[in-house]
Amino acid sequence: MESMVQQQLVRIGGTIREARLERGLTQSALAAQVGTSQSAVARIEQGGQNLSMDMLTKISRALDSEIITVASSNLPLNMRIEGGKQLSGSIDVRTSKNAAVACLCAAMLNKGRTTLRNLARIEEVNRITEVLNSIGVKTRWLPDSSDLEITPPEKIDLSTIDEVAARRTRTILMFLGPLMHEFDTFELPNAGGCDLGARTVEPHLHALRAFGMSVEASNGYYHVSVDNSVRPTKPIVLIERGDTVTENALFAAARYEGKTIIRNASSNYMVQDLCFFLRELGVSIEGVGTTTLEIQGVGEINKDIEYFPSEDPIEAMSLVAAAIVTKSEITIKRVPIEFMEIELAILEEMGFRYEITEEYVSANGETRLVDLTTKPGPLKAPTDKIHPLPFPGLNIDNLPFFAVIAACAEGQTLIHDWVYENRAIYLNELTKIGATVHLMDPHRVMIEGPAKWRAAEVMCPPALRPGVVILLGMLACPGTSILRNIYVINRGYEELDERLNALGADITSFRDDEFSN
């Protein structure tokens, strides 16, 4: 797979070539103007040549083009962290990335206008809206808000799909369920997203076969055919209690006019949010919050609706971890407590102290929230290993935060990430900033604390939660740390640096002044 820097070089090279051709210049003529060789220009246009900012400036002037601006905006974004500072104050938990993604995909089921209120304006949402826009769906952020309006076209046009955006997100898999109601045959680019090892799509296909879908993967595409005469004749038993698998099955069932029963369904936070959203569309769903869902779908959906996705328990856990590693008292508002109870129970066993308010209800009318105030104090390693389970167990996406928390605790903590083949390996990066991490196998790490934190320069892991874990560890490191290429963090968090700075952190985002492979 091409690196992100290589992709940027190819993109900028293409921009240079287009600008040169518009001005009727040969590669040799451009080379003469910027003081290089024709072969160097050829390599630049193919994305195979390192580019300094000085050379980009010369090319921009020679072509009278804003290439320098385009290039600068595509440079990898980094963070400089002045660590060792205590945090204070209060911070709101933003709405859930995964609930937003589910509702964005579900909006394709609706022929009317959907308005999603107070979305996190993150890269993952940007990628999906890019794909939606490319196939004819109109999306726009309403003025002076974080509200996204989604208006479907008369007919979706998959021939114009933005493949670059589609391949950068695994969410493209969640287009299968909605699109099966629109096409008898279609293709989608293969999925991407976080680098977390082999993640089979078979559970998705197993669920959707009950609705007549068959899929073949070849040449970088999913080739899909749908037999509309096939309908579920018995309860669908999911072979994996996965969040996106359950969501795809819900998309399929939502526009099927009969009754669908889904067993071994995920009851995680984003699935519950999707169920509440589908109810707004007129779909009847019983069993929300359990592993058995009973859905009565509707053949056509054409409603103008608005929906408020609920708050993100993974961001809430991130903020709890930030308070713990910096030994700070902060108040985290709008915590979805139902999806944090196991995590807090484990933290209590480790000695973590906190106060919470009475419960109140999120804007979706369903999710229970509290405000939580952290109390700094010594931690000890838990007696048992820490491992995830499907909800109501410890959330798989919250597991990595226990690595940086364990590094602050006295004793040895075993963390077992049985879901992903290599995410535990990324946690080994904590050693670069002073943690003691023993990689026992691709799924298990032993962490000895307390860490002797030290500032360092680290390349951000290519997976969202481990990337944030390194950032949080750097908050504890006295001195200046650099976290390079933080795109993956921006996939899931909105303005995390600015919001932590408002609590007293010292984080500066910056771009390098040249490209290198």
TrEMBL record:
Pathway: Cell wall biogenesis; peptidoglycan biosynthesis. InterPro entries: Cro/C1-type_HTH, Enolpyruvate_Tfrase_dom, Enolpyruvate_Tfrase_sf, Lambda_DNA-bd_dom_sf, MurA_subfamily, RNA3'P_cycl/enolpyr_Trfase_a/b, UDP_GlcNAc_COvinyl_MurA. It is found in: Cytoplasm. It is an enzyme of class 2 (transferase). SUPFAM superfamilies: EPT/RTPC-like (SSF55205), lambda repressor-like DNA-binding domains (SSF47413). It comes from the Bacteria. Its main location: cytoplasm. Residues 16-70 form the HTH cro/C1-type domain. Coiled coil: none annotated. Its EC number is 2.5.1.7. CDD domains: HTH_XRE, UdpNAET. The keyword Nuclease does not apply. Cell wall formation. Adds enolpyruvyl to UDP-N-acetylglucosamine. Belongs to the EPSP synthase family. MurA subfamily. This is UDP-N-acetylglucosamine 1-carboxyvinyltransferase. It comes from Dermacoccus barathri.
